[in-house]
């Protein structure tokens, strides 16, 4: 397990994650990319914000884009949008919900793509500590960006690595000019992180042992639950990293949700994260060990 913090500590000024503050990068005549399947950030059908190819624009980047009235396009790789010239590209690796990991080549390709077009790359790397079948890479890694963070911002959170979701504790690093703009804007939007939360973050960011324990705990749950799902006939796609299993029975995800509900198992329908996930469900590893074991037993009948 490689700590994501190494690349955020490498002299990149910290800030507060605030996708909406990046709205000054976009306008009604600009384009923003978000992943094909991503955590819901804003409902944005074509009438709402001009989105293409998605029923829900995922990732926080879509929120500011929707507010600005810009055109939102879903894309998985640069090849999907080779002829476009976006203002901002929001990537998410490891992905929520799919657990897909972009390798070094793909991440480098996005950086080159954005630099060629003068676009800002915002890399959501909040699940980066939890790689299982693939090692997540950071866009701030000097081996990926050639030692130049111009036009690159990485977003990092303690919600996953330290179970600190309720604290809303996170930060950004990367291009100093972008970070300084966000620091200035946040003052006027009231998004300063409270001092007690910053104090807790300081302690937790200085401790890697609890992250190692978290990693082992989730790995054990993943082994139990994934084996039970496969034995019950599910196919697990991607899921190389992160805190979820992206599973399908080859039927509409809402039907699968009903099946799981009948067993007393709560999951999220894949279409929460965009139409591309309509035949999948997202099953979390965040329940207790006892509940994960119980779910596995129920799946086995």
Write up this protein.
The chain has helices at 5-8, 46-49, 61-68, 104-117, 142-145, 158-161, 176-189, 195-205, 209-231, 253-262, 289-299; strands at residues 31-34, 40-43, 56-58, 71-74, 88-92, 120-124, 152-157, 170-174, 235-237, 244-248, 268-269, 281-284. With 301 residues, the protein is of the alpha/beta class. It has two domains: 5-205, Aspartate Aminotransferase, domain 2, CATH 3.40.640.10; 209-299, Aspartate Aminotransferase, domain 1 (Alpha-Beta Complex). The chain has a six-stranded mixed β-sheet with strand order 4-1-5-6-7-8, with helices on both faces. Helix 9 (209-231) packs parallel to helix 11 (289-299). It starts with a helix and ends with a helix.
CATH superfamily of the largest domain: Type I PLP-dependent aspartate aminotransferase-like (Major domain)
Distinct helical segment count: 11
Percent in strands: 15-25%
Oligomer: single chain
At CATH level 3, the topology of the largest domain is: Aspartate Aminotransferase, domain 2
Shape: globular
Q: What is the end-to-end distance? A: 35 Å
Structural category is: alpha/beta
CATH architecture of the largest domain: 3-Layer(aba) Sandwich
Unreliable sequence segments: 11-23, 42-60
How would you spell out the order of helices and strands?
HEEHEHEEHEHEHEHHHEEHEEH
Care to count the β-strands?
A: 12
As a whole number of angstroms, the C-alpha radius of gyration is 19 Å
Widest sheet: strand order? 4-1-5-6-7-8
**Share of helical residues:** 25-40%
Mean pLDDT: 85
Task: Compute the number of structural domains.
Answer: 2
Q: How does the major sheet shape up?
A: 6 strands, mixed
CATH class term of the largest domain: Alpha Beta
């Amino acid at each position: 397990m490689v700590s994501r913090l190494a690349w955020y500590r490498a002299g990149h000024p910290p800030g507060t994650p605030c996708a909406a503050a990046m709205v000054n990068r976009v306008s009604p005549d600009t384009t923003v990319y978000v992943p094909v399947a991503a955590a819901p950030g804003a409902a944005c059908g074509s009438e709402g914000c001009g989105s293409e190819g998605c029923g829900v624009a995922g990732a926080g980047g879509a929120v500011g884009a929707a507010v600005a009235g810009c055109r939102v396009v879903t894309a998985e790789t640069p090849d999907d949008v080779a002829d476009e010239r976006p203002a901002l590209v929001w990537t998410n690796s490891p992905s929520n919900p799919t657990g897909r990991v972009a390798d070094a080549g793909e991440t480098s390709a996005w950086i080159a793509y954005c630099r060629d077009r003068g676009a800002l790359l915002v890399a959501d790397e909040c699940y980066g500590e939890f790689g299982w079948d693939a090692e997540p890479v950071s866009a701030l890694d000097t081996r990926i960006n050639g030692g130049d963070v111009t036009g690159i911002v990485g977003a990092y959170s303690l919600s996953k690595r330290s179970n600190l979701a309720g604290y809303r504790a996170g930060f950004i690093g990367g291009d100093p000019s972008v970070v300084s703009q966000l620091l200035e804007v946040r003052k006027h939007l009231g998004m300063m992180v409270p001092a007690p939360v910053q104090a807790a973050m300081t302690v937790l960011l200085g401790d890697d042992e609890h992250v190692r324990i978290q990693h082992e705990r989730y790995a054990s749950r993943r082994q139990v639950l994934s084996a039970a799902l496969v034995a019950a006939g599910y196919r697990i796609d991607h899921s190389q990293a992160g805190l979820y299993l992206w599973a399908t029975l080859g039927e509409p995800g809402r039907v699968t949700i009903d099946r799981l509900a009948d067993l007393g198992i709560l999951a999220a329908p894949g279409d929460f994260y965009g139409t591309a996930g309509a035949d999948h469900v997202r099953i979390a590893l965040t329940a207790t060990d006892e509940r994960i074991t119980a779910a596995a037993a129920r799946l086995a009948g």
